[in-house]
Amino acid sequence: MAQSFVRTLLGRSDYAIISEIVEPNTRILDLGCGEGELLAWLAENKHVDARGVEIVGHKVQQAIARGVSVYHGDIEEALGDLPDQAFDYVILSQTLQESQAPLKILREMLRVGRRAIVAFPNFGHWTVRLSHLFTGRAPKTKLFPHDWYDSPNIHFLTVHDFESLAARERWQIERRIYLSGARQVRLFANLLSEVAVFLVSK
Amino acid sequence: MVTETQIARFDSIPLDCGAVLAPVDIAYETYGELNAPKTNAILILHAFSGDAHAAGTDRETGATGWWDNMIGPGKGFDTDRYFVISSNILSGCRGTSGPSSINPETGCPYAMNFPPVTIPDMVRLQKMLIDHLGIKRLLAVAGGSMGAMQALQWAVAYPDRVAAAIPIAGTARHSAQQIAFNEVGRQAIMADLDWNEGNYYGKHPPARGLAVARMVGHITYMSDESMREKFGRRLRDQNQFEVESYLRYRGTQFVDRFDANSYLYITKAMDYFDLAGESRSLGAAFAGVKSRFLVISFTSDWLYPSYQSIEVVRALRGRNCDVAYCELPSTYGHDAFLVTIDEQTELVRGFLASTLRERA
Question: pTM of the full predicted structure?
Fold first, then answer.
């Protein structure tokens, strides 16, 4: 699908992309759904059956107060409870790099859902490479603003890394969308995209 | 909001034990207005010692309802939007038939001849009341503690009659620890000579035994932290700590409003309740449910710990049921569902609004 530019939704360009990918009247599971903003938007505008998982208690409270059915708990455990192919889409937005066992989570997402939508910050972005090259330290950029000792990110991956994992696991990448700010990146994605969004199926 | 308890009488009710109770009364109150399509009715299910008077001010006694902070205009269960029904449980002593009711065959109170009652029996009587009120499908059933057990039983027994269930601080079955505390209460009552095998009506009730049972209960409803905050080691006078005085007061007060035989019947019903049944798993029990769920537990509740709510939630998720779950932070122990109101209100309000929007 040709998209000339990317909007933002709720202040996030990955949300805008996800909201465009998701078909109406489907079943959605959002892992690490925060206060349920995306799910509430999808429920209202695309009439989806929206469920979420969130570990932070006060965010869960906000999400349920919004009317979204959210499970207060750990993503891995929450996936494990669910039957096969229970959802049309399982969303993991900006959380993969913070998970203990990313591959296990990705496999579980494709067991529980027909498709997975994965958005993550691209560690291959040129600013990250330059930061590392010139300072000789763990990269600190707009995208990865934390010091090494207090970063929530524990797994760093690039667009190429995800592509090769998908090839190894024989997942089909149905769509790949690369973002720099709210703009869509067409060329040199691994170098220029700040955030990558993949629509994956098995 | 001034309220009045009403009584509905039915010819009979079949019980799980095989007996038929005839006739049977159920005490109930209603708040708010039932809408024309009858889609806004919510049934409130009380905990062990509760009654039908859940909200407002009683016309006669002036007493405030036990969940008044949750039910009323603009509150979590908003009576400007919803028609709220609250009834007293079967085998209770607050207007619904129980051991202290008169047995029509003898003209005397049933006492221990009252048939054993289960949580499903209680729910069956509630369903008769809902039929009587002409409501085909409840928007929600909601309750804390034993009320949560009833809410779960509703969703399992009458899946087409409830759009949503809100079990708070509850469980699908009692643990050994919960049964143990109940047994201490029962033994305290039965050890009181005034209990007299249950035949004390018109004489001295087993006041000391019942008061001790209630004291134990109150300890389990609080937390180490809430007791430390409320009493610490403060002395009431030279001979007693504040906490001792409080428990005695609570115990004595309870004797005035509660029947010792009802205590025995209700705690037994709770202990024997097992949503999963003997051979089936909890997941199998939820096979037919159609409701959505809001499950709430509290961090400091050690009587009904979060793991019991999580067990329910995980079984529901395994069935791909629509379930929201939140563990709320609170220092109040099991009492939290009666006290931690702001957070609970937010959850209930949002959940009910989306249920009404999507499912009514």
Answer: 0.95
